[in-house]
Design goal:
The protein is an alpha/beta fold and 330 residues long. It has nine helices and 14 strands. The chain is 40% helix and 19% strand.
Length: 330
């Protein structure tokens, strides 16, 4: 009997405590492999999360290297600044393009699991902001797997669970302790079918993007349309992709991918950087004009006055930008 023995879990803000509560309640002899992506800042070094989870729960945990074979009854945690993907029998650890502003990201893990293992997969979205994981859950559900989200009312940060619930019809919405019990039950529940349905080869193509094994021509295989937006990361054209009835996503030729919420967040950061760059340029030019004007003050008063006037106009423009930055909502 084949159970739901491929369990993929995604979390972000508030995720460490939530994951500790989850693994604490897992059965000791769980006949499944668990794969965890937690959004982390790239600060160098290895993640402490495997050691934390191993101390807290009954299952051994590790941060695998590329092409590690996976076993049942173990937890595998994505390394900082690397995506974790699942193939048929091994784990891939790759440094592909960021998705939803993160590396590791939840969607590539979920998507690769759905493509490789179809209905055997259980996808779990826990506490976090924005909406990473929603598209991955859609892929899992489309391939016959089981979708689970933490009850938003319990989650320290409800963004990721709420986004998943708004995007697709999730199979289970539960508190963390009940999710742990459910995973034990699903691991023993017989799975119907053995692979992904026909007609969704783009899951495989998108997984290849995460491994940097695709080029620009492959965008045609995603059945998307060029959008009016540019990638805020690399400035390339973004293609608009549609999952199901309501979910829109965006991906550029080199592989950067965004949900709607993450695209808006990235555009906000990009716009802020551009505004600060404009403020700096105006201030520097005003200082340069005044510096040059000093040389003409005694000999050419007309030129001195003109340069001082131009510098004053730049000061006024810079003040408008400072007021704009100060008036932004916190």
């Amino acid at each position: 009997m084949q159970g739901h023995d491929i369990i993929v879990i995604g979390a972000s803000a508030g995720g460490v405590q939530t994951l500790k509560e989850l693994v604490q309640e897992l059965p000791e002899h769980l006949p499944a492999s668990l794969f965890i992506v937690l959004h982390t800042a790239n600060q160098g070094g290895d993640s402490l999360l495997p050691a934390i989870l191993e101390r807290k729960g009954p299952l051994p945990a590790q941060a695998p290297v590329d092409k590690t074979p996976f076993e049942k009854g173990r937890i595998y945690v994505a390394r900082p600044d690397h995506h974790m993907l699942i193939e048929r029998d091994v784990i891939r650890i790759v440094r592909g393009p960021k998705e939803n502003r993160h590396r590791p990201s939840v969607d590539p893990l979920f998507r690769s699991a759905a493509w490789s293992h179809g209905p055997r997969v259980v996808g779990v979205v826990l506490s976090g902001t924005l909406d990473d994981g929603a598209a991955g859950l859609w892929a899992i559900k489309t391939c016959g797997g089981v979708t689970v989200v933490q009850d938003p009312a319990e989650a320290p940060y409800s963004g990721m669970p709420t986004s998943a619930l708004m995007t697709l019809r999730v199979d289970y919405c539960l508190p963390v302790k009940r999710i742990a019990m459910l995973l034990g039950e699903l691991a023993h529940r017989s799975v119907k079918g053995s692979g992904p349905p026909q007609g969704i080869d783009r899951l495989k193509t998108e997984t290849k993007f995460a491994t940097l094994d695709r080029d620009m021509e492959d965008m045609e295989q995603l059945n998307g349309d060029p959008s009016v937006f540019s990638c805020p990361t690399c400035q390339g054209t973004l293609w608009e992709l549609k999952d199901g009835e309501d979910m829109l996503r965006y991906r550029c030729h080199v592989g950067h991918a965004f949900s709607m919420d993450s695209l808006l967040a990235e555009q906000t950061d990009y716009a802020e950087k551009a505004i600060y760059s404009a403020l700096r340029a105006l201030q520097e030019k005003a200082k340069a004009l005044r510096r040059i004007a000093e040389r003409f003050e005694s000999r050419f008063p007309d030129i001195h006055a003109r340069y001082q006037q131009e510098a004053g106009q730049l000061d006024e423009s810079a003040e408008v930008i400072r007021q704009l930055l100060a008036s932004r909502p916190v």
